[in-house]
């Protein structure tokens, strides 16, 4: 709530949470030492969503957090409705926090007559009344340019690489990108781990068989080494499971996999638990329920990083400073 000093009202931070991943929002609230603003949120019989906040939000600095897990369209719509409600109730500034940016993979046209849905999401939130967006490890950094306003792009790499550093000796590590497109990220990881070598998996495709990988070739030194496979998200787990098998076939001593977003659709749990990796590490940007977990999976909390970024935004500080200027 606002407090007054010398008659001038101080701005107040208010945190709002969608229903997709309340545990993450609660943890962020604890780190910020605030309460999540109470609200009534429910669905009508035909599937329409209704949200009403139970406290005044006039003049507040509003932070609206929602994780976009399945059913993704319901949670996108709920967050849009929350933003609209805040705008119409005279919130001073609205920051949309989407730890996992929805539709991020549809960020360009691969063929004619396709949508660019990642841009559409940005337009929807701008129209609803969002002043600012905060997200973690966007699928591609260009998505920042889709939103006409400030975008805080947070990196989970320090959290993930810190865990690997703590639990594995870096003397024998090779960082592996599952395809040629993530080699830049692999280089950043390699620096984080003290200048270790990198490798990547080169996919060969037959032009007559679309969407089908014919052969994989590992480029780089992996024999007798601990391979750390890195990616931004794991959906059905097919690419990662193949990468792990390929590395073990090429003589890797062990394979650890680290990714920010555990989407884990369909067969992902079975594929990952049976792929032969020593450990699979995610963050909790998306909820990972017990039925998707298995021995050997570790889930690290992104809440402290989100809370620090929220504090910097609220206090007009620097989000870049959270990443040693590398943002």
What's this, in brief?
The protein is an alpha/beta fold and 327 residues long.
Distance between the termini: 32 Å
Question: What's the quaternary structure here?
Answer: single chain
What value does the Rg take, in angstroms?
21 Å
> In sequence order, what are the helices and strands, one letter per element?
EEEHEEEHEHEEHEHEEEHEHEEH
Give the overall silhouette: globular
The neighbouring-strand order within the major sheet is 12-11-10-13-14-15-16
Instruction: Characterize the main sheet.
Output: 7 strands, mixed
What is the strand content? Answer: 25-35%
Helix content estimate: 25-40%
Q: Segments where pLDDT lies below 50 for 5+ residues?
A: none
Total E-strand runs: 16
Descriptive key words:
327 residues; alpha/beta; seven-stranded mixed β-sheet; five-stranded parallel β-sheet; 8 helices; 28% helix; globular
Structure description:
There is one protein chain. The chain is an alpha/beta fold and 327 residues long. It contains 8 helices and 16 strands. The protein has helices at 22-32, 72-88, 117-128, 157-167, 183-192, 238-249, 268-273, 303-314; strands spanning 4-5, 8-9, 13-17, 39-43, 49-53, 61-65, 93-98, 132-136, 151-154, 173-177, 198-205, 213-219, 226-234, 254-262, 279-283, 297-300. It has a 7-stranded mixed beta sheet with strand order 12-11-10-13-14-15-16, with helices on both faces. The chain has a 5-stranded parallel beta sheet with strand order 3-6-7-8-9, with helices on both faces. Strands 1-2 form a two-stranded antiparallel sheet. Strand 7, helix 3 (117-128) and strand 8 (132-136) form a beta-alpha-beta unit. The longest helix has 17 residues, at 72-88. The mean pLDDT is 93.
